[in-house]
Amino acid sequence: MTNNVLPRRATVVAGAVLVAAAEFALLHSVAGVDLTVRSGSSTRQITVAAVVVAAAVAALAGWALLAVLERRTNRPRVWWTSVAVAVLLLSLVVGPPSGVGGEAMAILALLHLSVGVVVILGLSRPRPEGLDR
Length: 133
Prior knowledge:
Layout: H1 5-30, E1 36-39, E2 42-45, H2 48-72, H3 76-94, H4 102-123
Antiparallel strand pairs: 1-2
């Protein structure tokens, strides 16, 4: 990897985390929204720490998959983008319905979409000339 690819990808991960944290903070602190989700037979409050960790894990997993595909496939961007979009759609089907109430479901959908869009658009940009297979 060249010197500018690593910082650019780290910036995408940081951007995804910051977008999620900012959205959560605005909705929670400014709008007074509490994000509650069902977890089995109980409910739990989602904190900004949980949002930050989930966004970081998702973005880092996307980065790791892209790195593997760049080394093992002829068209890493096509494969990666396809998998990333499928994972985002799956997360929208699984995540937001766990919210308690329509407001929580909408916020979860917004958080999933925001992180997914930042990661997909940020990481799907091609590497510098001559480095993509």
